[in-house]
Amino acid sequence: MRVERLTCSIGAEVSGVNLGDAAGDASLFAEIKALLLVHKVLFLRDQDITRAEHVAFARRFGELEDHPVAGSDPDHPGLVRIYHGSDSKKSYENNYHTDGSWRPCPPMGAMLRCIECPEVGGDTIWVNMAAAYENLPDDVKQKIAGLRAKHSIEHSFGAGMTPEARAKLAADNPMVEHPVVRTHPETGEKVLYLNSFSTHFANYHTPENVRFGQDKTPGASLLFNYLISQAYIPEYQVRFRWKPNSVAIWDNRSTQHYAVHDYRPAPRRMERTAIIGDRPF
Ligand code: SIN
Fold first, then answer.
1. CA-proximal residue: ligand 1, atom 7 (nearest)
2. CA distance to 107, 195, 198, per residue, from 275 (Å)
3. Whether 2 contacts 14, CB under 8 Å
C-alpha cells in the first residue's frame, strides 16, 4: 500500500489496495481506518468493485443508513444513489456541508464511488474543519465555547418540495441541536461543527452576548456567517477530480465537502454509503 499526501492540511491518495479484498481483511481495514483518522479523506483509483463489495467495506466501520430523500439501490440497502442525468435541474449540491448533521447521530464517515462522471468538471472539495477550528482567533474560540446550533433538513432537501411535503419531512426529521465546537470521539481534536444544514445558534441570546435586543440578530448572524465561511478557505481544502471507479472515503465528523456543480448537461452518477455515527459532544 502506498500513501501520498495531496495537501498540507487534508487528503491522501492510497494505491496498491483493492477495497473488495480489504472488506474481508481485518488488518488491511485497520490500516485504512488509521490512515483515515490522520488524513480525513482518502482517495483510491481503479476500484472496479461490486456494489456488494462497496457495502461490505463500508459495513466494517459500522451500520449504514439510508437517506430520507435520495433513494438507495433496492438490492443494496444503505447504498444511496446520487444520480444526476443530463436533464437534472440544479440541485442542493452547491453547499459546503457535513452529511446528515440534521440527524441526532450524524454519520461518522462515508464512502463515495464514481460510476459515471463528466470528462471535466464535477469535482468534489473536502475541508478540514479541525484546522478551521484550530486557526480561529482566540477571542472567537472563547466566544463560541459552549455555543450550540440547530441543524435541519427542512430548508435544504425540503426547499423544492410542496409545503405539505416539507412539513412531513420536518415532522419525520425534527430539528436537532449540536455543539458548535465538537470533540472528535477518536482523535480528541476540536472541530468547528457548523455547516449549511445549521440554521441558527440555540443559546446565543444570553446577558453575556446581548446588552440590548438589537445585539441579538446582527450579532448572532455575523458570528454565524463568519464561522460558516471558514469552510471556504483554500488552505483547509483538497479538491478531487473523479474518474469512473474512483472512491473517496471521508471522516464526516471532522470535514465538510462540496460537490462542484459545473458540468451540466453531462451526467454524473455516484453511489454513497454513510456509516451511522455517534451523538456529537
Ligand atoms: C455528498 O454530498 O455526499 C456527495 C458528494 C458528491 O457527489 O461529490
1. 259
2. 5, 19, 21
3. yes
First to last CA, the chain: 34
Strands 12-15 and 237-240: unpaired
Three-class DSSP category at 133: helix
Domain with 162 in it: 1-281
- State how far Cα 190 lies from the chain centre: 16
Query: pLDDT for 57-79, tens place per residue?
Result: 999 999 999 898 888 899 999 99
Counting as low any pLDDT under 50, the low residues of the chain are: none
Give the distance (Å) from ligand 1 centre to CA of residue 122: 10
Separation between Cα atoms, residue 199 and residue 149, nearest integer Å: 7
Total number of domains in the chain: 1
Query: What cell does 38 get?
Result: 490522520
How far apart (Å, rounded) are the C-alpha atoms in residues 147 and 170? Answer: 24
Q: Residue 201: which CATH number? A: 3.60.130.10
Which residues line ligand 1 at a C-beta cut-off of 6 Å? 82, 99, 112, 124, 257, 259, 270, 272
Report CA-CA distances (Å) from 82 to 27, 40, 88, 193: 31, 22, 11, 24
- Say if pTM beats, i.e. exceeds, 0.85: yes
- Ordered alpha helix ranges (H), 64-127: none
Q: Which of 104, 26, 128, 111 is nearest to 277 (CA)?
A: 104
